Amino acid sequence: MIVEYRLNEVGRKQALLSGGNGKQWQTIEIKPTAELLRMATVECNGEAKLQLRVPCLQKSSSTIEFELEGYDFLLRKDVELLYVSRFGDWVDFSAPLDEQGVLEKVRELNVMYDDCIQRSRGEKKAREEIEPELPRLFAEARELAIKKAAEQEKAEQEKKALEQQENDYLNFKDTIINFNGTVSQVERYAAGLLSSAETEKILEDHIFGPLSRFPEYELMNNSEVCKCALYGLDPDECKVKYSSWAAEEADDEEFTVFKAIKGLIPQAKQAKVQLRVHEGVASQCGGRKEKRGVMVNIEILGHKFSREYAC
Fold this sequence. Notes:
Order of helices and strands: EHEHEEEEEHHHHHHEHEEE
Radius of gyration: 44 Å
């Protein structure tokens, strides 16, 4: 059999001094024994080759499948296995080897190899370690599978409900536009050319139709808030900050409007009516203006509409 080994620099010098070639990679041919063959490989042509390398442990992740009576699915468990490899780092020798030197080193490597085997964790050992836990693991896996199936079924039902709701909304929109739109709007809608602004206006006019007698709230503008002209200041330098919040009190007139609007909303369960305060404050002149409005929010088949009225 052929033995391959590696010389370090000291070993290469010793090889030259003893009449060798002084190369890093060396080979020696010796008679095979059971002890030597344990660490060797044998080629298909029957040639045995031994590389003097340190055996080592290598990690490998693996998935082991288990079946347990009474369960209708497999349990897969990821484990980390340790495998013994005879092809670790090369041993560096400080002198050329003879047959006796090879035998002594192989005995040392065989001891290291046995130690690796003792410390290795193969698939069989991993199975034996996990098997006592199988009933618990299967129960947990089954519970998780049932939970995931229920969640998936719920998600599918919710998806179907949303799809049905959207179809119902499209039918609602078609009906409202065809009934309330002008001839031009109906034709453009059928051709897919009606603008979103016009579409929303038609829908909102229908939805908020019962409130048509109430004037819509008009946004404040800077000229209503800024008083710079009264003080000889430049209005262009005056910044106005606007803010809004839910009102905490109302006078008789405001409450009358609020109550009348709330009583006319047909989709009462889907509507929210709120009295709101709007304020504008000018930064330079200190001007301030407050207005109030009644905000109506209505949700129809998952789509939200809002309109605010003056009070």
